[in-house]
Amino acid sequence: MMSGHLYQDRGQCSPGWSPGGWKNVGGSEPDWNSTPFQYGIYDPKATYTQGGSGKKKKCGRNSKNQPECYLEGTTLSEALGYYGLGCPSGLVSVCHLPMATILNENPGGSTGNFAGHFVAALLNASHSGITYVITPSQLVGLYNDPSTIPEPYTGNIGSFLDSTW
Fold first, then answer.
1. Which ranges of the chain does DSSP label H, i.e. alpha helix?
2. What is the dihedral sign for C-alpha 66, 123, 84, 140?
3. For the stretch 113-151, what's the b/e string if a residue is b when 16 or more beta carbons lie within 10 angstroms of its beta carbon?
4. Residue 117 contacts by C-beta under 8 Å, 6 or more apart in sequence?
5. How far are the Cα atoms of 19, 61, 109, 152 from residue 161, in angstroms, in the given order?
6. How confident is the model at residue 45 (pLDDT cuts 50, 70, 90)?
7. pTM higher than 0.90 for the full model?
């Protein structure tokens, strides 16, 4: 799937899940429990915004598919620290946020888009059931030096990562 200096024999690679898949807490997959990270802690006392009405509703026991009902969760910085890695310079502004928040709120305009792609790729690389095409260390390398992104995606990290799920 990839060639050049990013090549590492990882056996048969499998596609990962997209940012949209990883933020979907109501689905059966992808499974955050198959990673060393936590989506968050369900809080039945939290509230979420119902539809486009702007009305707040209490999470209760039956709103486990609402991202706003989850608190805390592993931050991007903590996840990278698990691998002994630092935050890529382009994502420093969101590194303190929980990964689920980055996926769901997409903060920071284009930085948010790249951050959501980064989080999904990091989760894919960390999932025990996925033999993902890149490692966490390689992922950080791509963000720190976009010139290393393979052709035909050179310089476009979003398009490259889109091709891996």
1. 19-23, 76-82, 99-105, 110-126, 136-144, 157-162
2. negative
3. ebbbbbbbbbbbbbbeebebbbbbebbbbbbeeeeebbe
4. 19, 157, 158, 161, 162
5. 10, 36, 18, 12
6. very high
7. no
Return the biggest CA–CA distance within the chain. Answer: 52
> Cα-flanking dihedrals φ and ψ of residue 138, to 5°?
-65, -35
* End-to-end CA, the chain: 12
* CB-based contact 150:6 (threshold 8 Å): yes
Report how far residue 77's alpha carbon sits from residue 61's, in angstroms, rounded to the nearest whole number. 30
Partners of residue 57 on adjacent β-strands: 48
C-alpha 68/C-alpha 59 separation (Å) is 8
Q: Which two tokens stand for residue 32?
A: 């955050």
Say what the pLDDT of residue 113 is: 66
Radius of gyration of the chain (CA): 16
pLDDT tens digit string along 7-27?
A: 444 457 788 888 888 887 755
Residue with tokens 């929980």: 98
Confidence (pLDDT) at 106: 64
Please, are residues 5 and 148 in contact by the beta-carbon 8 Å criterion?
A: yes
